[in-house]
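Shipment paperwork, digital attachment
Item: protein structure file
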Amino acid sequence: ELLDIPYTQALGLESDDDYLPPPMLDPENAKSKEPIRPGDVIEYSSFLFVAGDKRGHREATVISVDPNREPVLVLDNGEVLPSDSTIRRTKILWGGKLRAHSGVSRPIQNFVLEKAVMEGRSDKISAGFAKEASRV
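Attachment content:
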């Protein structure tokens, strides 16, 4: 007799369509107060390789940040990263010295982004990458 009654957690709802799950805390998709600045060292996976391929694991220094440009980041290894790339800061430039940082991996757009160029570098470098990326 009890097996004839359907089992549900959605008591008091007219149908399953009325059920909204509670919001989940997802640190990867939450907007962070952590900034990305020129001079920071980041880890990321190159989009040229399949997910999980160790050859795609990269570590590079940020040269230029521009949230209004695509690609958002220009790196010292010649690569550029669009805003939907997932990165993790491993070192931060603090007081003129690189210091270890145990950052969290998250999409670039979830970091605080302010337009800046590494000291001693010209913004012409990042402009050149942007021009090249627009041709592709």
